[in-house]
């Protein structure tokens, strides 16, 4: 890929919601991708999420620490193969705290004992509708790391799924953290730009890793 004419700048999209471009270098992206490939394997591997209305989410998902299903957390894959959820590794929690420190400062990271990861895999046609991450019992910031294809990440408000919102381009290696007054803001992924993953990463599609504190 051509070098950027100007490096992309870090930006505060809303109070407590910060985009840090290129937070993970190529080596760390590769390591995280390798870990995602391991986590995606059964048992308790990548699955299609069914919603209570009878639909399916187009992004497929695997969880660590606790299993998310619409709309709660369990210790086993209650809506899949029934296997115990894979453990949440210490190094991922450490990565989460570093991310919050870099995005929001050390004070915001002090209480953030990350224990859950939701890993979403998007192929070219996958999307994620506007929603809030509201099934956790803690208000620690959500950490979001992107790998592979670029997407449009829509970051909205706490009241409605509709405007006002801001569209942010998330590329491979980007970090997005939302906490404080933005912790319960609606957000979603209306578009993935197929074929934009860095070729050297060796993946097709997009992966998003969100880290959360369960408070459970
Ligand atoms: O893929 C993304 O960037 C967002 C994922 C997300 O909103 C979620 O896991 O709740």
Care to give the gist of this entry?
One of its GO terms (molecular function) is dioxygenase activity. This protein has helices spanning 26-39, 90-104, 106-109, and strands spanning 11-14, 17-20, 60-64, 67-69, 72-74, 116-122, 128-131, 142-148, 150-155, 166-170, 175-178, 187-193, 206-212.
Structure description:
This protein has a single domain (10-212), classed as Alpha-ketoglutarate-dependent dioxygenase AlkB-like (Jelly Rolls, Sandwich). The protein has a seven-stranded antiparallel beta sheet with strand order 1-2-11-8-13-6-3, with helices on one face. Strands 7-12-9-10 form a four-stranded antiparallel beta sheet, with no helix packed on it. The model has no long low-confidence stretch (mean pLDDT 97). The chain is 15% helix and 31% strand. The longest helix is centred in the middle third of the chain and has 15 residues, at 90-104. It is α+β, with helices and mostly antiparallel strands. The N and C termini lie far apart (43 Å). It has three helices and 13 strands; from the N terminus they run ββαβββααββββββββ. 2-oxoglutaric acid (AKG) binds at residues 118, 120, 128, 133, 144, 153, 187, 189, 208, 210. 2-oxoglutaric acid binds next to β6, β12 and β13.
Key descriptive features of the protein:
3 helices, single chain, alpha+beta, 15% helix, binds 2-oxoglutaric acid, 216 residues, 13 strands, Jelly Rolls
């Amino acid at each position: 890929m051509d070098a950027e004419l100007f490096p992309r700048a870090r930006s505060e999209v809303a109070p407590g919601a910060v985009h840090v471009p290129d937070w993970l270098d190529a080596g760390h992206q590769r390591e995280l991708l390798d870990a995602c490939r391991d986590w995606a394997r059964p048992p308790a591997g990548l699955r299609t999420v069914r919603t209570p209305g009878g639909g399916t989410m187009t992004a497929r998902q695997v969880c660590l620490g606790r299993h998310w299903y619409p709309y709660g957390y369990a210790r086993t894959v209650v809506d899949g193969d029934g296997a115990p959820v894979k453990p949440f590794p210490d190094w991922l929690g450490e990565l989460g705290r570093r991310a919050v420190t870099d995005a929001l400062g050390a004070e915001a990271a002090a209480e953030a004992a990350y224990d859950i990861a939701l890993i979403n895999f998007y192929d070219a046609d996958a999307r994620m509708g506007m929603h809030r991450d509201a099934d956790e019992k803690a208000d620690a910031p959500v950490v979001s790391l992107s790998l592979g294809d670029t997407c449009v990440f829509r970051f909205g408000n706490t009241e409605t799924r509709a405007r006002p919102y801001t569209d942010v381009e998330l590329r491979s290696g980007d970090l997005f953290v939302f906490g404080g007054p933005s912790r319960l803001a609606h957000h979603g992924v209306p578009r993935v730009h197929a074929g934009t993953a860095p070729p050297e990463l060796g993946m097709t599609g997009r992966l998003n890793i969100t880290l959360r504190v369960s408070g459970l």
